[in-house]
Amino acid sequence: SNKSVKNTQIDGYFIYKHDKSISEIAIGDDAEIYTFGAKLTGTPAEHWKYSVEGAYQFGHKEDPTVKSAPGDRDLSAYGFNGSLTYLLKDRLNNQVGLAAEYLSGDDADSKGTDEMFDVLWGRWPRFSELYIYSYAGETGGKIAQLNNIIRVGPTWSLNPMKGMTVSATYNAMFAPEETPTRAVNAALFSQDGNFRGHYLQANLKHQFNKHWTTHLWAEFVWEGDYYAQQDLMTFLRAEVMFTF
Predict the structure, then answer these.
(1) In the 8-state DSSP scheme, what is residue 90?
(2) In contact, 228 and 187? CB cutoff 8 Å
(3) What is the CA radius of gyration of the chain?
(4) Strand 73-87 and strand 113-114: pairing?
(5) How far is CA 142 from the centre of its chain?
(6) Are 61 and 69 in contact (CB under 8 A)?
(7) Nearest-angstrom CA–CA distance, 22 and 4
(8) Could you report the per-residue pLDDT of 55-102, keeping only the tens digit for each?
(9) Alpha carbons 180 and 108: distance in angstroms, whole number
(10) Cβ(199)–Cβ(128) under 8 Å?
């Protein structure tokens, strides 16, 4: 990590991951994954902040859920995410931002190479509580194994009162590869479309004091032509938490 440039932080990293399957019950991958990445964050002006991160993966992986090309394959995958935020610095702390992410998907035509980006230990709801579950149908049953996605869209947030945050996010989502090579059921996917759908999130959080917090969280996904049947996915959660 380096902060020698004014208002800028530069981070570089290398991550090694070894996967070994449980062969007795046929769960998991056998893999050696090497990831090199870099991240640049900064505040170039009073009201602006940004973040840009990219990573490249190589190694090899044997994933039993890939039926079209079984066996050990060379890994070559890419990932990117970035955001740009404008802070109004007004009474309500309004912030408007634009975020984008790209995670490569496996090319069905390249039998000896696996282009699917592996999120390593990142299988958790980074931007969506709802959409992580739809991934199980295209990644061999692995929830939140995000890959083969391009998403871009704005976010707006504000603090209408002390301890309260209200935010809204929209993403247009695409699939770089039309065919999910790890699909549990190929009939779920059109095999002839790249648009995953429209994603909308609305969120209200409030912290009453150091012990009590609450949130109301809603998400909607209008599925696109990447899927064989375009449905509306919905998610709503109301939560009250006591911390001691």
Answers:
(1) S
(2) yes
(3) 20
(4) parallel
(5) 14
(6) no
(7) 46
(8) 999 999 999 888 778 789 999 999 999 999 999 999 999 999 999 999
(9) 8
(10) yes
Q: Which of 93, 100, 27 is nearest to 65 (CA)?
A: 27
Number of other residues whose CB lies within 10 A of the CB of residue 17: 14
Residue 42 carries which side chain, given as an amino acid letter? G
Q: Would you say residue 111 has pLDDT above 90?
A: no
Q: Which residues pair with 45 in a beta bridge?
A: 48
Question: Minimal CA–CA distance to 73: which of 106, 49, 101, 100?
Answer: 106
Question: How far lies 7's CA from each of 46, 80, 98, 99, 148, in Å?
Answer: 10, 22, 20, 20, 33
Residue recorded with tokens 């602006």: 48
Give pTM, 2 decimals: 0.94
Task: Give strand pairing partners of 49.
Answer: 85
Amino acid, single-letter form, for residue 109: D
Question: Residue 146 in contact with residue 180, Cβ under 8 Å?
Answer: no
State how far the Cα of 28 lies from the Cα of 15, in Å rounded to an integer. 19
Q: How far is CA 41 from CA 47, 58, 79, 157, in A?
A: 14, 25, 17, 20
Sign for the pseudo-dihedral over CA of 63, 67, 72, 75: negative
Q: Which of 79, 102, 85, 80 is nearest to 50 (CA)?
A: 85
What 6-10 contacts at long range (C-beta under 8 Å, 24+ apart), as own/partner pairs, is: 7/42, 7/43, 7/44, 8/40, 8/41, 8/42, 9/40, 9/41, 9/42, 10/38, 10/39, 10/40
Q: Band the pLDDT of 24: cuts 50, 70, 90.
A: low
- Using an 8 Å Cβ cutoff, are 120 and 126 in contact? no
Rounded Cα gap, residues 219 and 221, in angstroms: 7
Residue pointed to by tokens 């530069």: 10
CA nearest to 54, candidates 20, 80, 77: 80
pLDDT of residue 22: 84
